[in-house]
Every structure is written in structure tokens, then in C-alpha cells.
Amino acid sequence: MARQSALRVWEVCEPHRDVFSRDPDPSLFAISLHHVMRGSADRDYTDPERFFARTCMTRALSNLLQRVLGRLAGQGRGAPVLRLETPFGGGKTHTMTALWHIARYPEVCSEQESLRPILEALNLRSVPNDLRVAVLDGRGLDARERRTDDGLTVRTLWGELAYQLGGRTGYEMLADADQTRTSPGGALLTELLRRYQPALILMDEVLDYLIKARAVSVGSSNLMEQTGTFLGELTSAVSAVPQSALVLALPASSLEIPAENQESAERLFQYAKKVLGRMELVETPVAQDEVFEVLRRRLFQRVAEERDRKKAVEAFRAYYEEYARFFPDRLRSPDYRERMLQAYPFHPELVDLLYERWGPHPQFQRTRGALRLLALVLRRIWQQRPGSALLIQPHHIDLHDRHIRGEVVRLLDSSWEAIVTGDVLRRAEELERQLGGEYSREQLARGTASAAFVYSISAATRDVGATEEEIRTALLRPSINPAMVSEVLGRLRERLWYLRYRDHRYFFTAKPNLNKVILDFENEVTDEQVEKALRERITQCTGKAGEGFQLVIAPAEPKLVPDRAQPTLVVLPPDVHQPQQWMEQAVQAAESGIRVNKNMLIFLVPEPTQISALRSAIRRWLALKAVSDSHSFKEMDSDDREQVKLQLKDKEAELEALLRRTYQEIYRPSNGSVKRITGIGPETIKAKTLAAFVEETLRNKGELVDSVAPEYLKDVLRIDQQQQVPLAQVSNLFTGVTSQPVLRNPEEAVRRTVQQGVQQGLFAVRVGEQVYSRQEVPDDILKRKDVVLVPPPDDKKQPPPPPAQPKPLTLRVRTSASVFYPITVVAKQLQQLNDATIVLEVRDPSGKLSTMQAEIDKLVRDYGCTCEWVSSTE
């Protein structure tokens, strides 16, 4: 498939050598017309063959060259004055450099393939070889004076014009005006141009010159005013001479003028527009739909064959189709497919970002700035060789690269360096390490943060930032699940300090977001506050005393657990490092000495892997509470205030869930140590409190009971084999012997069991000389310390109590199969009922009974009983 066979850009494309060899300084793609004229610029600009080989002949550039060349050839074509007005870096100087080469090297330019259509349109076999050209570069010229190679002193723009067009002879025509720095007048300029036509005048960086000229006094005025008069007269003179042309460049706005302040820059800008506002034609050398070829020509010496381009584009197309709901519909249109082919090896979104979002920015030099930035991006890609780089996308503006980062931050201000370093580099990278796997391998967190950042740079205040769809388009490439970006964005919103989310758009601001505010409050939370709040939350989550247990919450030492004859739930402290040893010490000793009521202890032990997350959640919860109570909370915008409330509510729920996950291990004393209670069911997890959770679990496992049968008491204590058993020993059986079940209320349960056993004649109670047998024993008798249990007296010596009048009853006993002992005791008792019928019904929702069916069926029938098997679904 196309997705599998598509090659990476660094496998099939080759950038120009200077992308790798030059030092990445800001002048890499900048042209100075003055340096081109003097031959001191790079060979890519001074050599006409190299220059036109790397120049994309756009429609606008071709049209402009045709008009100027037609006028110079005397064909009456084109306007005499052309004013190029585009944003800085929009191709003005490049256009004038092309005109310079045509006028300066006509023979070489006549052979250039890209210029042949222009000459044919003008019916010219070659470029006229008698063209004269003058370059007036305001940035390169000194406003005071300069010495020529043949010894002349030139002081003004009109002096430069005359000298460059006619040498010493030409200069003599305007010598007086140049020496006195007064404008020569339109008639003299017209005469100069007529004598030296065809004449091409190229003026660049005019406003730079005017700023310098303002400081040079000329009588009661200054050189700036004289130069302004000269420019107005020059446009009139050029219009009057058929084979002359003036091409002049102005910035698009005053923001690009290096004046002392913005107000001064604006005045100068309006002054220049007024002076040059006549007989002009504004041209745009590079149209946006042609920029793909411009970038390709300037940056690459070899681009992939058409077959490889199509494979890469089809891989993206198939990817966008597969995950259609994650991407804008326009990405799947036939028109967009053509744009992708035209833009290759760049993704159209990258170029659109630079031209539409960054282009209007006053600090971005559109074509020149794009070339410089993209050269750095190419260098990074060819060094790193990422495996998924089928096209060059916005996420390849890798802010980890200090040169790329410098280009991007330069559009804002120096304070953004710390924002990029902290959010995009450090915090996003930390998230990647935590997520691991493909998140880390494909650098999805850093890529997502970088995409949001580069889309935050815009000259407009509307629609700043990027939607989730736009971030996916900027970041994702074939084989990556788009849902991963949603996961990353959600986490970045919680972690980054300067990322904001408004109106479904992600963007960075210089003002810290709520995360930073909360973190500042979080840093103020002390460890003592965390521990105190953690204990309070554990207490709250455990429940209230009396809900089945006495509660002991996070005691500092094992011996501080009270020695009570009541079931006691001990919730261990979260920082216990050896819980087994801690519990064993608690079982053996209390503060008063050796522990007596060992069997009454139940332990709830924390899971150590959850403690760190629990403390972090407590700290964040305390910080959120502090934020909501602070004075700054009232000064926040409504979105942030609402976000604080939502986060506080979410953190409450998270703490509850974390505590329940942390405290799930239940232990009981057993044979000198402790044993874990396993088999926690879903119904116990739904318990409202930790205490209720423990109670439900112990009841389901038969470890916690409300009472025991008197037969069990008789058998365990062997009352029939002993002369007497003190009642205190009976209580200690359940409170102090760790093999016994936990009685919910030991004192009451033992009293009821003894009373039942006495009435049934299983044993008797003796108090002093009085013996109670087969009769009710008063509660106050059982409270005496001299009560002992004894075997029942011989029936022959003591007449039985009169039998009660029998009445027909039906007995229904319901119990868990894990606590079957009471049933066996009841069954023995029922043997006396010769006329009674016993029906045993076992309900088994687990289905395990079906595996025992054959064995039980045989056993029942061997004893002569009947049985019936009924499906639980019936």
C-alpha cells in the first residue's frame, strides 16, 4: 500500500548545500541590493546564472519584468514608476535584483530559460545591451557623502543617480545641486534621463535613507526635505522619458521602519507615500499560490520524483480517510490533494501557517523569514532523520533546536524564551516520559505543545491559537492513532503553565494560567498540612465509630491501639513501611502491657504504591481550597473561577476513589501472626465507608457474626468433661483466642448463648450454691463474677420442668454455605422429631453445585431420601 511504500523526505530529497554549511545567522536569506551591485554579496545573488537558477519565475514577477523591459525597449509598455509594497521579506529586493542582472548582464540573461517567455512576449531575441542602471540603496548609502573610485565626492541621491548613469560626465550635469544638497529640479533630471536612456533606476530602503538625511542640515531645511522634493521631481521626469523606468520599494506599514518611536515612523511613512503617491503601480512579486515553488527552488537542489511524491501524498490521504472524523473535511477534497502535490515536500499547513498566520506579523519577513526558518527546519530533519517524516509539517518547527527556537521567539519578545523552555521543552517532555511507548517515541507531547505554540503567533487577535483538529493536522502522520492527541491535550491542559483553552482553541499567553497559579499555592502547602489533611480524609472516609466497630485511625505506634473487648478496626498509618511487623506488634502488646483482647482486632492496611499519588492529590486539593478562598480568586475571569470550582469538585471525587483503592487490604490475627482476608466481592466495594466495606467483607467470609450456637460453646469448652468453666473464660474465648470468629457484641452474644444453652439443658449455670438448669437465667445473675458453667445435673435427681404445650411450627434457616456449623447443630436437634419433614434447599448462583450433582444425587438416594434438581432459571 502507499502508506507502507512511501519514503521519508530525507531519503528522496536533497537540500542545497548552504542549508548545512552556513552559520544560521539572520542574514542567510537576506539580500542587500547595494552589496549585489558592489559584488560583495553571496554568489547566489551576484552570479546571474546561479541567481535565476534559484529564482522561481512567478506570474507576478514575470509580468513585472515584462513591463519594465518593454518600457526600456521603447515599446511603450508598462507604467514608468512601479512601487513595490509588500510586507518586509515579501520579495521586493529579490525582484529588483532580477532587474539589476537583466540590465547589467544582458548577454547572460538572454540565455536564461526562465526569461525566454518574457523576451518572446516582447518580440525580442535578446535583452537590449545598451541599458543603463542606477542602484540607490538607502541602507547602503551614506547620507553625508561618499568618495567614488575615481575621486569624486558624492553627497546626495541625485548625485549618485547622475554618476551611476553617466559617470563623471553625467555627474557634472547635477554637480552644483549635489554639492549644495539642493534638489536639481524636474527639467534637469529629465535632461539627464533623456541623455542616458534606456535608464533603469532601482531604489530600495528609501525610508532608511530619509531617516539618516533628516539629521543633515541644508540651509533652513534638511536633506530629508530636499530628498523628498527630489523624489517627486524624479517620478515626473521618469514619466516624461519613454525609455526610463523607476522601480521603488516601500514597506507595507510603518511597523517596519527603524525610527526612534512608532509615532515618528508613522509620520515618515505617510510622508513617503505622499511624495511617491503619483504615477505608480503597486506590484506583489510573489503570490501565495506560487510560494510552494519559490520555497522548493530556494531550498532544494533535488526533490523526489513524481512517483515518490504521489506515494507520500496518498499515504496521508488514506490516513485522513481512515480517521475521517478526526480531521477537517477539506483535507479529503481533490483540491487539497493537488495542493499537497504542489507543496511537496512541505505539508500545505506548514506553508499556510507561515504565510497566513505569521506573514502579517510585523516582525516576520514573510518569504525571507520563511526561507530562513525552513532552512533550519530542514537541517534539523536531515540531522535527526525521523522515521515518520513523509512530509514536512508544522510540528517539525522543533523548538528543542536553539536556532529554530530563536527564530520563533524573535517574533514575540525575550520573555517567551522561558515560557518555551518551561512548558514546551521541560513539562511536555516529562509527560512524554511518563506516558512512554508511542507517545514518547513519536514525541507527541512536545509536538502537540509546539503546534499550539506556533499557532499562537499571529498579528491578529481573532482566532489566535489552534483547534484540536488543526493541532492534529499539524502533528499527526500515518500510523498514529489520532485519539492519542486528545489524551495528550487533556494532560497538557493540566500541567502547562501558559497554555490556555478558550472557545475550543488552544493557545499560549505570556500570562500564567490557572495551573501556574495553583502550583504557586501548592508550593505554599507544608508537609504538616498534608499529613493533617490526609488523616482527616482517612477518618472521614472510614466512617463513624459505632457502625459495627470501634475505630482507631492511623495510630502513631502499634501499642497505642486500645485493648478493648469490642471489635476494633485499626486503619494503619499511610507511611508504615513494614505493616506485617507493625500488626504483629499490635496483636502482642498494648500500652497497658500484654494485649488480652487479641481476637477483637481487624486491620485495614494501605497499598504502598498508592501513597505518593494520595499525598499529591491531598496537596493539590489543599491548594485548590486556598485558591478559592484567596483574594485573587475574585480577580480571576469567570472561566478561571469556574475551572477552580470544577477542579476542586473533581479532586474531592479523586481523593475518595484514591482512598478506597489505597485501603483494601484486610487482616486479622491468626496463630501468633496475622492473616489476610481475601475474596472481596463487588458488593463490598460499593460500601459507603471503609468501615462498612470491612464489615461486609468479614460477614461474607464468615469472620464476623452476631451470635454462636450453645452447642458450639459446649463442644469448644468441653463443659461435659470439666467440672466447671468460669463465665469469664467463655468471654475470653471470643475476645482473646485468635482462632475464633469476631462477635459483633461479645458480652451480649455470650450472655444470650449461655441463656439458650441453659434452657436447652446443654449445660447449667452455678452461682454460689444455686444451680440454673433448663430454666431462664436472669441477666443480673450473669453479671456476677462468680458465675460458672457446669454440666447439667442428672435428670433423675432433678425432675425436668413441665413440658410446654406443643404447637405446630415451620422452621426456615438461611445461612451461607461457608458458615454451615449452625445447620449441623440444628439437624442433630431435629432428630427428635419423628413426624417432621425436613426440606433442604440450596441456592447456588455461582453454578458450582452443578459440578457436584452426580455425587450428591447418589449420596442422597443411598440414604433412601428423595431429591429434586431445579434449574435456577425456572
Can I get a quick summary?
The chain is α/β, with parallel strands linked by helices. Helix content is 49%, strand content 11%. α23 crosses α27 (483-495) and α36 packs across α38.
**Overall 3D geometry?**
elongated
On the 0 to 100 scale, the average pLDDT is 85
Unreliably modeled segments = 24-28
SS elements, strand count = 26
Structure, explained:
This protein is α/β, with parallel strands linked by helices. The chain starts with a helix and ends in a 12-residue tail after the last helix. The chain is 49% helix and 11% strand.
List the helices and strands and how they pair.
Elements: H1 2-5, H2 9-12, E1 14-15, H3 18-21, H4 33-38, H5 43-46, H6 48-53, H7 59-72, E2 81-86, H8 92-104, H9 106-110, H10 116-121, E3 132-137, E4 146-147, E5 153-154, H11 157-173, H12 175-180, H13 186-196, E6 199-204, H14 206-213, E7 217-218, E8 221-222, H15 223-240, E9 244-251, H16 262-275, E10 282-283, H17 291-299, E11 300-302, H18 306-322, H19 334-343, H20 348-358, H21 366-384, H22 402-409, H23 416-435, H24 437-441, H25 444-454, H26 468-475, H27 483-495, E12 499-502, E13 505-508, H28 514-523, H29 527-542, E14 550-553, E15 568-571, H30 579-588, E16 589-590, E17 593-594, E18 601-606, H31 611-629, H32 631-635, H33 638-662, E19 663-670, E20 673-677, H34 682-685, H35 690-700, E21 704-705, H36 710-717, E22 725-726, H37 727-736, E23 742-743, H38 746-759, E24 764-767, E25 770-772, H39 779-782, E26 787-790, H40 821-830, H41 853-862
Helix pairs in contact: 11-13, 13-15, 14-15, 17-21, 21-22, 23-25, 23-27, 25-26, 25-27, 28-31, 29-31, 31-33, 36-38
